[in-house]
Backbone:
C-alpha cells in the first residue's frame, strides 16, 4: 500500500491509524513511502554516484529500517559492501532491496 505524506501528524487521526505500528519506535512521526504486510519501506531514487548511494541509504534509514533503492550506476557488490558497513556501524537495517530497471525486486543479503 502506498502511503500518504503528513506534515502535521500528531493531531491527524489518519496518520495515527496508518502508522500505529510505528508508535514507540524511532520512526514514529515519519512517513515511509509504502507498506507491504506489516513492514514499512522507504523508496530512494538514484542519482548516479557511489556517494549518492551512501546518501540514499542514510536518507532511507531516517524513514524506515527497510529500504528500496533504484537500480543505477553501481554494482550489487558496492551496495552489499555499503549495507554491511552500515550494519557494522550499528545502523538498524532490516532489509534492503534493489528496484531493477525491469521492475523486478532483488533482495540484498547481508
Residues:
Amino acid at each position: 500500500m502506498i502511503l500518504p505524506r503528513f506534515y502535521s501528524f500528531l493531531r491527524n487521526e489518519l496518520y495515527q491509524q496508518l502508522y500505529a505500528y510505528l508508535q514507540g519506535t524511532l520512526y514514529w512521526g515519519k512517513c515511509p513511502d509504502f507498506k507491504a504486510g506489516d513492514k514499512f519501506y522507504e523508496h530512494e531514487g538514484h542519482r548516479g554516484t557511489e556517494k549518492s548511494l551512501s546518501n540514499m541509504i542514510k536518507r532511507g534509514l531516517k524513514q524506515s529500517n527497510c529500504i528500496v533503492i533504484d537500480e543505477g550506476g553501481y554494482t550489487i557488490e558496492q551496495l552489499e559492501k555499503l549495507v554491511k558497513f552500515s550494519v557494522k556501524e550499528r545502523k538498524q537495517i532490516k532489509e534492503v532491496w534493489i528496484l531493477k530497471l525491469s521492475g523486478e525486486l532483488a533482495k540484498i543479503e547481508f
